[in-house]
Amino acid sequence: MGNLTVGRQQMCEIAKAISREVKLIVFDEPSAALTEAEIEELFKIIRDLRAKGLGIVYISHRMDEIKVITDRVTIMRDGSYVGTLVTRDCTKDDIINMMVGRVIYETPKQVSNVPEDAPVVLKVENLNAGRLVKDVSFELRKGEILGFSGLMGAGRTETARVIFGADRKESGDIFINGKKAEIKTTEDAVKHGIGYLSEDRKRFGLVIQKTVAENATMASLPDFTQGLFIEKEKEQREAEQYVKTLNIKTPSVNQLVMNLSGGNQQKVVIAKWLIKNCDILIFDEPTRGIDVGAKSEIYHLMNVLVKQGKSIIMISSEMTEILRMSDRVIVMCEGRITGELPIEEVTQERIMTAATLRN
User: What is the pTM of this model?
Assistant: First the structure.
């Protein structure tokens, strides 16, 4: 199981739950790691279970799913009951407003914010690694959010891991600011100014038994050491600054990360790479498993970062997220790039067409 992707682990968990003779099943974010096609299959299973008389509790932050699959929706905020609505009688904005106390609009981006003469900060040529990274070539410009879309198993995460040095490349070249970069390890990638926010933040992004301060300064530890010793006061001051900047909800920087919500854990990972001052950030499923309020804050932060001159590769399985945040979209299928579209030409239909262009 440890060798499976997060999405496939999720499917196995669902299979385990429905294989038993039960009267009630609680699905807690069951679609967080699934593609659109797999979500449709999940909904078929849920409808079959409902037809057999089973009760279903479906916990999700995805508003479109709530409208499609539920009969009633109960909203909670900050651990308290807010209210219950009949799904067919309410709108998505009604639900979101009750969740966060305000309406959050998710309108698609109409025009790229990247100047045509923006310099190329990352260039990947003919990258090959394993069976899910095949002859991948693309460019990332300064101040750009480059969206990576595709179905599960398309090779998006695998490509990111090779660029970050987490997996070994077989062939191909990576250029940073026009100069060829030899990236064989994650340490090499960090030295070249690349930060990676993994889709599985608890496994690859955080040490959850450590504090907020310890996690935030982890990638920059030499900057906080004097000889053999860590300068705790300096570490805490830096962490406190980013807790305030990123609006991380925590009693203090000495709080264990395992006690934070998913959205605040994600902000701690972001703080780690901002403290390291990385210019190229790879966001792999940046809003998976976090509520709409925290999601909006992450989006705002990403926009602030690119305005400051950072460049972002954003891998996402959520079509609305791709359409809302990307300046340009690359689509992958079975390890290959099958589409590259400026945001002005992107539609869900064009993305799905490219995502299913198998050899």
Answer: 0.73
